[in-house]
Amino acid sequence: MLSKNLPPVFAFSILLLAGCAGTENEARIRGVNASPSPDMETGPEGPALEGVLVSGQDATVMPARAKNSFLVTFPAGNGKPAAVFSFQETDINDRRGLALDIRNAGSQPVRVYADLNGNPWERGYLAVSPGKTGTLYIFARRSKIAASDAEKFSNMRGIPGGKMSAGGRAEPVVAKQVKVFMVMPRQDAHIQVGRLRPFGSSLIPNLAGFYPFIDRYGQYKHKEWAGKLHGDADFKANLVKEETDLAQHPGPQHLDQYGGWAAGPQLKATGHFRTEKCQGKWWLIDPQGRLFWSDGIDSVRSSQTTRVRGREKYFKEPPPDGDHLARNLQTKYGDHWQTAFTAQTLRRLRSWGLNTLGAWSDERVTRQQKMPYTFFFKSGVAGQTNLQTNMLGQNLRAAMTQVRETLNNDPWCIGFFVDNEIHASTDPAWFEAYYRTVAALAKEILPNKLYLGSRLDYHNWPEESEAHREIVRQAAKYCDIVGFNFYKFTVEDMVLPAGIDKPVIIGEFHMGALDRGLFHTGLRGVVDQTQRAEAYRYFMTTALCNPAIVGAHWFELYDNPTAGRFDGENFQIGFLDVCDTPYGETIAAAREIGYRLYSIRALSGNSGSGGSKLVP
Predict the structure, then answer these.
(1) Disulfide check for 528: which of 37, 208, 272, 314 has CB 3.0–4.6 Å away?
(2) In the structure, what pLDDT confidence band is assigned to residue 456 with cuts at 50, 70 and 90?
(3) Chain segment 159-180, per-residue pLDDT in tens
(4) Is the dihedral of CA 38, 39, 44, 50 positive or negative?
(5) Options 3.30.1490.20, 3.20.20.80, 3.40.710.10, 3.40.50.150; which CATH number does 241-603 get?
(6) What is the number of H-type helices and E-type strands within the chain?
(7) pLDDT > 80? residue 291
(8) What is the CA radius of gyration of the chain?
């Protein structure tokens, strides 16, 4: 576990200049205990579940005065103390999920998580200030949409009404247990839990006159929300509004040309990115020898396509190639829209406090040499349960050689990932041969670039199997930086296996909501845009305060298409929607982190260092 000296970080705030070195009393509390946005439909709620039983897992529980309510005490420590609430199996197939009220009975803010039926993919959270009560919402998921509904909305992970697939149970969806827990509480925490009940309706709407349900701009036709586009004139109005915002927020100060910490210590400059452990924390070092922490975003590109063929009735005016985003950008920026998009995107990212173009970003953007970037290779090992190292070597050698002159000599390229979320094998020996082969080629062909790993999707880390832990050991042996995709609400508990001291980069994370016209929250669901912004702030603060982590990249720049991309994902996960409109709440959170990036990182406590501060 992380050292007990790691300072506390709290759920609902961006801490002051000292980042996570402060206490919760230094936090600026906001965006908590509030009712969901009116654009998010949580009604009807109830009826309350009866006959609720509770047991503690490293937590103390006792009945409260209110019926079916319980007092829970979570002791301070490095674990995950929990209270498990059990009740009669309840059909929630046509509901959006389960809700429960949390009252903070203690004197310090608390951040509480809850899993439905023991499934970590059906997880919600709530941050509650002392003496206040809030509602924690857990969105139900199913392994797939029922055939009768899928026939009406094909190739869509989320459908009108509120049903979401992936990561849950097959229909019918039932509720029988809720696990309420905290992660590494820094003080004893006291809460009251009660009024467990289903919430919302996930019934599909009346289909009489429903089709087409997607308008010319790619938006859901039958709902209104803040920021929805209603005509081409809105593009111009949004441009004017955003111009004012960007002018007022030009970007963080005291940085070098790469986004490194110019006010920080001067270290050895090599002309390329490298890593170094400095006063107990791992860092990237930029080409000029300045400390750098990679605050990035993936898939910076101007295209998001959806399938039209066979689904023509879904769309009012479908673009021929199914790319509403590209058509919207052309309408907004004119004939030279691609050039305008590139310039606007780089200006936006700087203004938002970001400093890295993540994986799958358009080379027309990365080659501007105005922002550091990471590259992505696909090796072709998918499905190779028996790894063919010769084929792997041949494929990867060809791919690396093709871009060698571009990447190896480009100081703006941090490094590269090879593959994403490999599921071909769970055998550590397979991965040892894989990483060994890739690392040897990397050193031979791209010696100036960092090998960032394979984006291991171990979302319950560190609570993973021993096989997964051994795979991480192999990754650490051969990679310059161990790459994970972490769809989690926090990484304060992220620690590598015993004896491994290596930097870590997070290749993907995100959170999404259902209050802006899309039908799926993405892999981590929140109730609305306010909670989404709070979740971003907290995740990034815990990443910055973790001494092993050298960067985190949000997935991705734009929302998925409303009717689903190639695999049906139609997640509300962008910093921008399909009409190129920024999500203001998330942008504000990104700025709060990005403009204080190095203050938070440098002034946070060091593992085993007694909380010492990094100074020039």
Answers:
(1) 37
(2) very high
(3) 999 999 986 667 789 999 999 9
(4) negative
(5) 3.20.20.80
(6) 11, 21
(7) yes
(8) 24
User: Which whole-number Å values give the CA distances from 119 to 49, 91, 391, 460, in the listed order?
Assistant: 19, 16, 38, 11
Residue 585 pLDDT: 98
Residue of 539, 607, 558 lying closest to 218 (CA atoms) = 558
Residue 548: pLDDT over 70:
yes
Strands 291-292 and 281-285 turn out to be antiparallel
Confidence band (pLDDT; 50, 70, 90) for 34? Answer: low
Angle, alpha carbons 143-149-154 (nearest 5°): 80
User: What is the band of 513 on the pLDDT scale with cuts at 50, 70, 90?
Assistant: very high
State the pLDDT at residue 33.
55
Residue 29: pLDDT above 70? Answer: no
245 φ, ψ to 5°?
-65, -45
Distance separating alpha carbons of residues 93 and 380, to the nearest angstrom: 39
Q: Which amino acid is at 102?
A: I
pTM above 0.85, yes or no: yes
Closest to 293 (Cα-Cα) out of 266, 257, 260, 267? 260
Token pair for 104: 């903070």
Among residues of the chain, what percentage have pLDDT more than 90? 88
Residues 56-66 have pLDDT tens digits of 999 999 999 98
Q: What's the pLDDT score for residue 375?
A: 98
Top-confidence residue, 594 or 605: 594
Nearest-10 Cα torsion for 55, 58, 63, 64:
-140
Q: Helix, strand, or coil here: 223?
A: coil
The position carrying tokens 């009012």 is 316
| Of the candidates 465, 369, 454, the residue with the CA atom closest to the CA atom of residue 412 | 369
Residue type, 88: Q
Q: Which two tokens stand for residue 493?
A: 């508990």
Work out the number of other CB atoms within 10 angstroms of the CB of residue 46: 11
Q: Concatenated DSSP letters for 19-62? A: GGGS-GGGS---S-SPPPPTTS---SB-PPP-S-EEEEESSEEE
Give every CB contact of residue 230 below 8 A, 6+ residues apart in sequence.
none
Q: Is the model's pLDDT at 601 over the cut of 90?
A: yes
Give CA–CA dist 61/192, Å, rounded: 9
Cα(406)–Cα(401) distance, rounded to whole angstroms? 10
- Topology match between the domains 42-199 and 241-603: no
Q: Where exactly are the structural domains of the chain?
A: 42-199, 241-603
Under DSSP, the state recorded for 282 is E
CATH homologous superfamily, domain 42-199: Galactose-binding lectin (2.60.120.430)
Cβ neighbours of residue 381 closer than 8 Å, sequence gap 6 or more: 387, 392, 419, 422, 424, 434
Query: What gap in Å lies between CA 140 and CA 148, rounded to an integer?
Result: 19
Phi, psi of 472 (to 5 degrees): -65, -40
- Given a contact cutoff of 8 angstroms between Cβ atoms, the answer to whether 426 and 469 are in contact is no
- The full 3-state SS of 332-367, as one line of letters, equals HHCCCHHHHHHHHHHHHHHHCCCCEECCCCCHHHHC
State the greatest distance between any 2 C-alpha atoms of the chain, in Å, as a whole number. 71
> How does strand 482-485 pair with strand 119-128?
unpaired
